[in-house]
Amino acid sequence: MNFSAVITTLPLSSQHLRVYCYVVHDQSVSISGARAHTHREKEHTQRKKEREIFCFMDIHSLLWFRKGLRLHDNPALHKACEGAKYVYPVFVLDPWFLAPDLSAPSPGSSRVGVNRIRFLLQSLKDLDHGLQARGSRLLLLKGDPTSIIPELLKKWNIRRLCFEFDTEPYAQARDNKVKEAALKLGVGVFSPISHTIFDPQETIRKNGGTPPLTYQSFCKLIGKAPVPIGDAPSSIPLPEDFNGAKLVDLPSLNDLGYNNLEQEEYTPFPGGESEALTRLEQSLKDKNWVVEFEKPKGDPTAFIKPATTVLSPYLKFGCLSARLFYTRLKEIYSQSKTYTKPPVSLEGQLLWREFFYTASYGTPNFDRMTGNPICKQIPWKDDDHLLDLWREGRTGFPWIDAAMVQLRKWGWMHHLARHAVACFLTRGDLFVYWEKGRDVFDRLLIDSDWAINNGNWMWLSASSFFYQYHRIYSPLTFGKKYDPQGKFVRHFLPVLKDMPSAYIYEPWTAPLEVQRKARCIIGRDYPKPVVDHSVASKQCMEMMKAAYALDKETEGQPSLEDIDALKKKLQGKQLQTKDATAAGQTKRKNEKESSSSSGRSTKQQRKMTDYK
DNA sequence: CGAGACGTTGCTACG
DNA sequence: GCGTAGCAACGTCTC
């Protein structure tokens, strides 16, 4: 038989899937995304055709896990099992992500902190358990998946390769390589959308080719959410022989080379689908809490019992299906007379995730300032000293530092704490590149998610989505508002545990006598503040104003010379930040610019097409 | 085209 | 303790 393959789109069990399908003798079945009724018909024909093909052979499916580390609501798994003689469930451990980097500022690889590596290992273990309960197991291999997967396709005589669609550029490059190899071998590739609720490409198409950049317009575009599919088949056929493939055991952290971990406190959130489902049930148990949830009202300093669900790491790895979460929420809302609404509600939180996935999928260079059509060009400082202080929790602002220590130890912070430290590093105080802070989050957060992380850093640095740069979080009063006693600070910064509450957020203002009594001399045991916030924040606002003006003047594409000139101009106005305790006075002058204006939307459209 | 409303989560002062 | 006004003032969307 002569096979060739084409890309097409067809619905499977009402889920829209992007798949590669077999076609016989180039009889491609092309299905336009517009008409659902013809979909169904053609789906039927397609399936019939497939059955005709497959009935002549024993189907071996390879189910490639990357994210989507779950058995519930997993369309790739269902597809792999469909009529298959054998299913090979594979995960490839990529040393690029896992090998210890001793030069890194905290334990972990160069890309991933040890908390997230542990979370992944736990998730894999749980996935293996789930598969074993169905007569299968997780097959682990080590190396570069783009070479390993094609080898396995040959070795195992695979006819069908299934994996969840992934929007990240890194994943796209990886998956395209594997797809290409698979198609050359005549292997059918099925890549359903199940990491997000909605199909980002579909939303972009509905919006006319570019992603919606406001939450409201995004919400208007999305239709009804697809519902989860059922649980995994109760039996998944595992072959007895692996034809010499180099399978490895699930490594421990120790095996990976993380053997001298002397950290005194680890993340309290273990990975895995079982944990995710338990956590989901616990979160949804209190129906009043669910229907009254309003994100901005949460307490970022609550750490014994966090103010949010902390389901984000489970969504990140796909231990929990976003569709399932969404459906469960809707059920609970439907039983209540009143319930909060997006953007602040729990449903709203899931939609934010969708929003950023869509924005990131349709925006070139989404993770950079330069070459990113939606990102304001701002002359951020490239100051590694300031960056180090921030990352290490040594800025001298206890609220900021405690949050950064929580990030390092737990791999998690409350959303508002993330706001506070991100604002502080960028437009609020230190004026350091948002990409630098993004990298730190990306490595350390157990829920670190490429689309959401980059989107939020642009948001917080007022580089995109959000532009009210004069609204700056105070590193002195923001934490105090929620936790006047400073319990959060005392927990994560034990050096300050005996500092009286009156000084806990501004310990440098404590009289020396008080500092002595608290056994914490500022400048010796705990750093002096790196900037005078009242001065620094005003300078930042000025810089933002000038940068916005230049951005507008140059239609979002200032030349390097423009940026340099602006930097020079601004540097003259910056005060010394070294000894901020000796509060300097500001001298400011308002230089007015004559700026030409032009429509932003058309500009963005132009820039978008420039990069295509 | 221009005006006005609005935007997930700012701050301080004041009643 | 909580809600509100004033602060200064961005871009986007709608009418």
UniProtKB/TrEMBL annotation:
It comes from the Eukaryota. The keyword tRNA processing does not apply. Its cofactor is FAD. Keywords: FAD, Flavoprotein, Nucleotide-binding. The keyword Protease does not apply. One of its GO terms (molecular function) is DNA binding. FAD binds at residues 308-312, 349-356, 447-449. It catalyses: (6-4) photoproduct (in DNA) = 2 pyrimidine residues (in DNA). Its EC number is 4.1.99.13. The record marks 380, 434, 457 as: Electron transfer via tryptophanyl radical. Binds 1 FAD per subunit. One of its GO terms (cellular component) is cytoplasm. Residues 59-197 form the Photolyase/cryptochrome alpha/beta domain. GO terms for biological process: circadian regulation of gene expression; entrainment of circadian clock by photoperiod; nucleobase-containing compound metabolic process. InterPro entries: Crypto/Photolyase_FAD-like_sf, Crypto/Photolyase_N_sf, Cryptochr/Photolyase_FAD-bd, Cryptochrome/DNA_photolyase_1, DNA_photolyase_N, Rossmann-like_a/b/a_fold. It is an enzyme of class 4 (lyase). Residues 560-612 are annotated as: Disordered. It holds the Pfam family FAD_binding_7. Belongs to the DNA photolyase class-1 family. This is (6-4)DNA photolyase.
